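Input chain follows. Return structure tokens only.
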Amino acid sequence: MSSEGSARIGQTSIAFPATMGGVDAADAYASEFCKAHQISSRLKRVLLLILEELVTNTVTHGCPVEDSNIDVTLRSDGSHIFLYYRDRGVAFDPMNDRNPPDFSQTMRSRPAGGVGWPLIFHYCGNVLYRRLGDHNDLQLTIPVFEVPPA
């Protein structure tokens, strides 16, 4: 993990392999970030959930290039956590390519999956996606003081 200079307040970055083992790396990184920035346990759980969803989606649906990394940067300005996420998976724009599950059905009657992006949109005040070359580039903003209950 590296820490950026004073140009970005409270910013750190990590890169880890685009594998399911990346969930553990992302969890440890985010936990350390939350401890260093005195983030509440509730907001920490939200951040861990978001990162787990992103990494899992990259590995299971994104078909990342062999031996590629996932890059994550976390930054806090005291009012928000800014999460920057980058992978080399297939292009996926969550703003346009999502098919939310039918929540009117019971969990047993609807297909598994599809809940991750609705949760991410629920907790993030802002989601920005760009395709930069062969990378998916996501920027998520999570309000520190206004984490809505699920």
